[in-house]
């Protein structure tokens, strides 16, 4: 066993094969009922030696968002002491590069404690890896008058500050921190990049299958607060004292309603994704939309790696009826595209012209996938590339009718370690080619370490939007096949 001193007291970790692990290490105080809607508070001291050999509780949550959300929901024990970090390090000596990873789950479900993230892959390849638990749903993102907004993002800032101040004790270099995440984790990376409090807390950024999609205006946020109060049968003051289980049930019901019945007048820009609890442009913690900040060079000026899978909405389309026609696709997309100035019929017509071989299901996948994932990643890459180095990737094969690698398909390869127990990986993310998985992991490791790319990967430039195409058949530099789709959304 290994004992270290951190803010709060002593912790005891353990030796794994090839690295040391310190699990569920607090970076802030427990989220008691009195602190539920406050900014993260300083770590509370403990007596004796805290056991850091086992995973602790995760943020309270109830499954939502259909089959995709159910797959991302944590079944692990919930609790109040979940503002924690899982740290794995190759050695306590030296100054290794650091990865700080933010999990996805639509800002309402998931955790850093899921088995897919416990492989120790980066620690085994020379990186100090840190995965973060943070407040989700209403706890993290509901606008509560008189309380700070964006508490989930403030948690991430507190975690990054803890890493800056303490990671050297774990053999990490605080000047070489890559801030990364997938899906809602990727959305969070882009949002934090636009926060004033993030300056100097990380030296590289990696939004993965997510960029600047899920951002609410204050008007949208206030509408959600009204919905929450109605669901709980209370007023704004009553939110502060609502029983946690009641809060979670109302959160689940509102998430399901927004996800299953998109409504622009009700949800505002959240109708695009159907995820209501999201970061808010409050003018304080998040002064402006990340894309606005990126255009002006006001996001964190660090090298960035960004990308998506080839079929981001393939799994999401499992909810569609088998007999879907183009009119049905337009109807289902209508409320979602209104925030972009389009009607469902108009955008489906435009996509059918551009993609004449696509079926109704393929058109729905193309429009929704571009709206939520591909286009935001392309726009953010373009805007940031004018001010800082950007590298863009595309993971998976390109298949007809918007087939290919679904959302999250790359995670198993990114977190693959030779000799690991593959049963830790969900079936949908289980790797089948260890050699390819090692190559994928090494691309991520090289970016984190600041090494030369193993594939001579050129920087992304809007005038020549090349990407690193990562597929089992080949890893090569090609023009981005999704780049021109951004222009499909330009109004007539």
Helices and strands, with pairings:
Layout: E1 2-6, E2 9-16, E3 19-26, E4 49-51, H1 66-72, E5 84-89, E6 96-102, H2 121-124, E7 128-132, H3 137-141, H4 151-166, E8 172-182, H5 184-193, E9 204-208, H6 218-232, H7 236-239, H8 244-260, H9 264-267, H10 290-295, E10 304-309, H11 326-337, H12 344-354, H13 360-385, E11 390-395, E12 398-399, E13 403-404, H14 411-414, H15 434-449, E14 466-471, E15 474-479
Domain Carboxylesterase type B: 3-489
Protein name: Para-nitrobenzyl esterase
Pfam family, one: COesterase
Summarize the structure.
The chain is an alpha/beta fold and 492 residues long. Among the domains are: 218-271, no CATH class; 307-409 and 452-489, no CATH class. The chain has 15 helices and 15 strands.
Write up what this structure looks like:
The chain is α/β, with parallel strands linked by helices. The strands form 2 sheets. Strands 1, 2, 3, 4, 5, 6, 7, 8, 9, 10, 11, 14 and 15 form a 13-stranded mixed beta sheet that branches. Strands 12-13 form a two-stranded antiparallel sheet. The chain has 15 helices and 15 strands. Among the domains are: 218-271, no CATH class; 307-409 and 452-489, no CATH class.
């Amino acid at each position: 066993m290994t004992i270290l001193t951190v803010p709060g007291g002593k912790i005891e970790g353990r030796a794994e094969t090839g690295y040391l692990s310190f699990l569920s290490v607090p970076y802030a105080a427990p989220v008691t009922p009195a602190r539920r809607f406050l900014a993260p508070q300083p770590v509370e001291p403990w007596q004796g030696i805290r056991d850091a050999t086992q995973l602790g509780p995760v943020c309270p949550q109830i499954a939502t968002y259909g089959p995709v959300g159910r797959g991302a929901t944590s079944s692990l024990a919930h609790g109040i002491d979940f503002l924690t970090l899982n740290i794995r390090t190759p050695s306590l000596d030296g100054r290794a590069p650091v990865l700080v990873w933010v999990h996805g789950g639509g800002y309402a479900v998931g955790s850093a404690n899921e088995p897919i993230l416990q492989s120790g892959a980066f620690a085994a390849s020379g990186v100090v890896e840190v995965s973060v638990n943070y407040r989700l749903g209403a706890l993290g993102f509901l606008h509560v008058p008189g309380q700070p907004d964006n508490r989930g993002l403030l948690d991430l800032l507190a975690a990054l500050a803890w890493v800056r101040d303490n990671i050297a004790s774990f053999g990490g270099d605080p000047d070489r921190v890559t801030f990364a995440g997938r899906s809602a984790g990727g959305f969070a990376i882009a949002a934090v990049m636009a926060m004033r409090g993030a300056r100097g807390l990380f030296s590289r950024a990696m939004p993965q299958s997510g960029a600047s999609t899920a951002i609410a205006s204050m008007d949208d946020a206030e509408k959600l607060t009204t919905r929450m109060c109605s669901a709980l049968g209370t007023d704004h003051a009553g939110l502060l004292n609502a029983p946690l289980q009641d809060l979670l049930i109302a959160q689940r019901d509102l998430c399901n309603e927004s996800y299953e019945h998109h409504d622009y007048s009700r949800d505002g820009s959240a109708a695009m994704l159907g995820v209501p609890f999201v970061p808010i442009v409050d003018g304080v913690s998040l002064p402006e939309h990340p894309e606005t900040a990126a255009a002006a060079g006001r996001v964190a000026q660090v090298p960035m790696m960004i990308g998506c899978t080839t079929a981001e909405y393939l799994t999401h389309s499992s909810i569609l009826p088998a007999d879907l026609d183009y009119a049905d696709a337009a109807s289902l997309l209508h409320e979602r595209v209104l925030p972009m100035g389009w009607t469902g019929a108009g955008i489906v017509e435009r996509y059918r012209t551009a993609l004449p071989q696509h079926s109704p299901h393929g058109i729905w996948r193309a429009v929704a996938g571009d709206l939520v994932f591909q286009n935001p990643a392309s726009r953010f890459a373009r805007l940031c590339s004018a001010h800082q180095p950007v590298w863009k990737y595309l993971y998976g094969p390109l298949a007809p009718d918007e087939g290919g690698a679904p959302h999250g398909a790359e995670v198993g390869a990114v977190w693959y370690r030779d000799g690991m127990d593959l049963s830790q990986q969900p079936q949908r993310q289980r790797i089948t080619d260890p050699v390819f998985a090692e190559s994928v992991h090494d691309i991520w490791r090289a970016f984190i370490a600041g090494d030369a790319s193993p594939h001579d990967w050129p920087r992304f430039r809007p005038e020549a939007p090349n990407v690193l195409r990562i597929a089992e058949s080949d890893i090569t530099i090609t023009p981005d096949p999704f780049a021109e789709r951004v222009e499909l959304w330009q109004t007539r």
